[in-house]
Amino acid sequence: MVSTDQIKFAQQFIEAIPHAKALGMTVTNLQDGVAELEMPYDDRFIGDPDTGVISGGAISALMDTCCGAAVVSHPDMNGATATIDLRIDYMRAAKPGDRIIARAEVYHMTRTVAFVRATSHDNDPDNPVATATGAFTAEKTS
């Protein structure tokens, strides 16, 4: 179970990242090694003015931040994290006007590295906008 301190740390982690704050990211769910964040649709994030499709960069930032939140919420984690490697595969354009929801889960943790998988979607979890896998720095408590 995620402790109150871990939840507080994860919230502070998100709020302390300038781009996360600028993109309006919010933590919607936090469990042991699992995080869900969402980002509202905003005209400032449009990558293609002709279609209104949100920029892939904004989605990348959301997924990276969500993965980091999953890492800091892991019960064996002690402290902050940083991205070592992140691969994002874009499946399709997000629907203009829809919020983007990301979910990340730590699936393996070594003494110094956390391995994470993530997906993002626009209100249809069965039809992802993008998927990601990554490695993040970790300092285990035990």
Can you walk me through this structure?
There is one protein chain. The protein is of the alpha+beta class. Helix content is about 25%, strand content about 35%. It contains 3 helices and 8 strands, in the order ααββββαββββ. The strands form 2 sheets. Strands 1-2-6-7-8-5 form a 6-stranded antiparallel beta sheet, with helices on one face. It has a two-stranded antiparallel sheet with strand order 3-4. Helix 1 runs antiparallel to helix 3. The longest helix is centred in the middle third of the chain and has 17 residues. The model has no long low-confidence stretch (mean pLDDT about 90).
What spatial form do the alpha-carbon principal axes imply? globular
User: What is the mean predicted local confidence, pLDDT?
Assistant: 90
Structural class: alpha+beta
Strand content: 35-45%
* Rg, nearest Å: 15 Å
How many strands appear in the DSSP assignment?
8
The order of strands across the largest sheet is 1-2-6-7-8-5
Given the structure, what is the number of helices? 3
Approximate helicity band:
10-25%
Tell me about the biggest sheet?
A: 6 strands, antiparallel
Q: Whole-Å distance between the termini?
A: 16 Å
Unreliable spans are none
Series of H and E elements: HHEEEEHEEEE
